[in-house]
Structures are given as structure tokens and as C-alpha cells.
Amino acid sequence: MNEQENIQDENLAQETAPEQETQETVEATAEEVLTAQLAEANDKYARLAAEFDNYRKRTSKERVELIQTAGQAVIAKLLPVLDDFDRALHVMASSQDVESVKQGVELISNKFRKVLENEGLKEMQVVGEPFDADFQEAITAIPAPTEDLKNKVIDVLEKGYSLNDKVIRFAKVVIGQ
Known about the structure:
The protein is an alpha+beta fold. The protein has helices spanning 2-69, 72-94, 98-118, and strands at 121-123, 136-142, 153-158, 161-163, 166-169, 171-176. The protein folds into three domains: 1-70; 71-119; 120-177, Nucleotide Exchange Factor Grpe, Chain A, domain 2. Helix content is 63%, strand content 16%. A hairpin with a 2-residue loop joins strand 4 (161-163) and strand 5. Helix 2 packs antiparallel against helix 3.
């Protein structure tokens, strides 16, 4: 009987040993899978971080280039006006006919204003309008010459301009009180 018990104990020991080996193998395999997944996730993260850094540097460089060349098109359109001014100054130096020089300068001024208007610049027309602090800067207030000019713009000391409906310079005005 003793022998029989020993055989049974051996059989029992052999049965539990493969279960332990299988469990250890499963744990080792799961650990390897998790390690591989972690390595893959770290690799993806590193690549994504590098890609984002490259994107940030590229957009920053493009922004700097855009700022540096933003006025290039406008300046190219203004060069003919500059040429006209140079010609007018040359003619003014030797001309005795003031009226023709005056007409030439007026033509150049109109051409200059037209180029700026085509680029979206608008001159504010504020004389006689109610004072609006969003578009005008009151320099001084004087007694209104008539009752209907109270709290309205009487005179403009410096014209105001807007570029594409955004104020780039406030009109400096005198208002009536």
C-alpha cells in the first residue's frame, strides 16, 4: 500500500508540475506581449512628438517669411507712384509754370490714393458726424457754432483710416459742446 501511495503522490506531483510550468509560460508570454506593446507605444509617442516639433518649426518659419514679405505686393504697386514723384520733383526744379506742376502733383496724389484704396484702405469721413470713440480721438472740445453740431465732429486735425474695416489710425478731431 505504501508503494501505491507513493505512485499516487508521484502522479499527483507530475500533474501539478505541468500546470505550474504552463502558468509560468503564460505569465512570461503576457509579460513579453506587454513589453512589446509598451515599446511600440513609446516609439509612436516619440515619432508623434518629433513630428509635432517639426510642424511647429515649419509653421514658425513660414509665419516669419510671411511677415517679411507681406508688404511686398503693396510696395510693388506703389513703385510707379514713387517714379511719378521723382519725375515731378525733377520737373519742379527747372519749371517756371507752377500751374502744370500743381496739376501733376494732384494727379500723382490721386494715383497714390487709388492704389491704397484698391488695397483696402478707406479714409474716414467724420466731419458733421456724431462723435464715436471707437473711430475717433477727441483732441479738444469747443463751443458748438450751432445747436445741431453739439457732440458732433466740427473739425479734423488728422484723418483716420481703416484697412479692410479695421481701424489702423483713429481720426483726431475737434468736437462741439
